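Translate structure to sequence.
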């Protein structure tokens, strides 16, 4: 094997539970292993990045990753970690979500190149569940797993013992459906390993038990700790919502900001989980950071590695420039030229703004009139002149004087002009 998959995960702190003999099995043969992705949205957020990275590690270790999109199980909803019944999705929404999830996973896992033995495969469990009748499922699968066994699972016990609103029969059957997925992949794809978050242990072991009882086979399981934030808040959540892996939902700038603003404790854990840097490099970065936490070397490298992996080097470099704009004393036209409207609006989120006609500045307008009468940024002509005398007024982060004329040349990102007084008093002018 290219490297020891289990040992790699261990030093990274990415193993919660592991079945006996799993490491030995992975070291002795090329193995197909799968992870399931729940199509509850038309993309994936960074909460799913751990599972994607696990498949990447599996492939790098010389094994064959299988990414399963739950078109069938997505119709039921996984009760694990939930205290209330999920809303059931329609087929149209599921189809859209599945297509979106597939497109995200395909950016990270090699489904076409490399050797056939390690070439990844993407499957949808709806393909083998859609023609399975309830009677056949009950006879062929249900009889192999007792209700006592299913009731002993933590995800079931919590719900039926009074936590939340109880559990419907629909959700109760979920672990059987997931167990059958494993059995199907074991028989059709020679899949011997399932990986998931620690909350999936019950569902995964139902699959290994079903393989043992029905197929007389031996299957293995690994779960990873659920990623948390040091302050106890949910990982991947911000005040603005989830951090998605799709730029249509989360801009590269916002994505980069999530990592660069990580706390020291979080950065120490995340540099090992979310990057492919080796142990020696991670240890050196942590040591460097602890000597001078203010420089934030760890956060900078973390943001660089993850943003580049997800969005590419060019997008990362643009995000760095965008991040620096807020704190720069002067920004060149070339730097502004790399910024789009959406990114600028996010950099200056919450800044007051006004909309004016583009025609107002086509022939040029003096700075005093522009700052007061046209935009209302400052309350009077006298206040504008006072600010000019103090040398505290800037346009697009560049200091201006009283002889400045505002023209089309001052427009950035296609339709914006950034006004500023002092260090923190910003104002956006949007041209229509």
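Result:
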């Amino acid at each position: 094997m290219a490297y020891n998959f289990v040992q790699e995960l261990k030093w990274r702190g990415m193993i919660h539970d592991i079945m006996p003999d799993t490491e030995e099995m992975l070291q002795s043969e090329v193995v197909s292993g799968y992870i399931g992705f729940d199509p509850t949205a038309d993309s994936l957020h960074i909460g799913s990045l751990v599972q994607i990275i696990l498949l990447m590690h599996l492939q790098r270790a010389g094994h064959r990753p299988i990414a399963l999109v739950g078109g069938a199980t997505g119709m039921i909803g996984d009760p694990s970690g939930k205290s209330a019944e999920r809303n059931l999705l329609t087929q149209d929404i599921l189809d859209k979500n599945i297509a979106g999830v597939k497109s995200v996973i395909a950016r990270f896992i090699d489904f076409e190149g490399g050797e056939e033995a390690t070439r990844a495969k993407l499957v949808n469990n709806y393909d083998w569940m859609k023609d399975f009748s309830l009677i056949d499922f009950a006879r062929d699968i249900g009889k192999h797993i007792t209700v006592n066994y299913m009731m002993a699972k933590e995800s079931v016990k919590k719900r039926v013992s009074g936590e939340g609103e109880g559990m419907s029969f629909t959700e109760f059957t979920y672990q059987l459906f997931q167990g059958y997925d494993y059995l199907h992949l074991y028989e059709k794809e020679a899949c011997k390993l399932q990986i998931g978050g620690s909350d999936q242990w019950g569902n995964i072991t139902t699959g290994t038990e079903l393989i043992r009882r029905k197929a007389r086979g031996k299957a293995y399981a690994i779960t990873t700790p659920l990623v948390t934030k040091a302050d106890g808040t949910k990982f991947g959540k911000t005040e603005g919502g989830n951090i998605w892996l799709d730029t249509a939902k989360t801009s590269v700038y916002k994505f980069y900001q999530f990592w660069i603003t990580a706390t020291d404790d979080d950065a120490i854990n995340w540099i090992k989980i979310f990057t492919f840097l080796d142990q020696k490099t991670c240890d050196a970065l942590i040591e460097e950071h602890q000597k001078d936490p203010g420089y934030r070397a760890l956060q900078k490298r973390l943001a660089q590695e993850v943003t580049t992996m997800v969005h590419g080097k060019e997008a990362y470099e643009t995000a760095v420039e965008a991040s620096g704009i807020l704190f720069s004393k002067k920004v060149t036209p070339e730097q502004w030229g790399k910024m789009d409207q959406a990114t600028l609006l996010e950099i200056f989120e919450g800044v007051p703004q006004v909309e004016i006609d583009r025609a107002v500045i086509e022939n040029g307008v003096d700075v005093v009139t522009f700052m007061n009468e046209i935009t209302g940024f400052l309350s009077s002509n006298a206040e504008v002149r006072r600010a000019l005398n103090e040398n505290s007024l800037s346009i697009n982060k560049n200091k201006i004087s009283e002889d400045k004329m505002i023209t089309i040349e001052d427009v950035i990102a296609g339709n914006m002009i950034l006004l500023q007084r002092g260090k923190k008093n910003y104002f956006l002018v949007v041209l229509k």
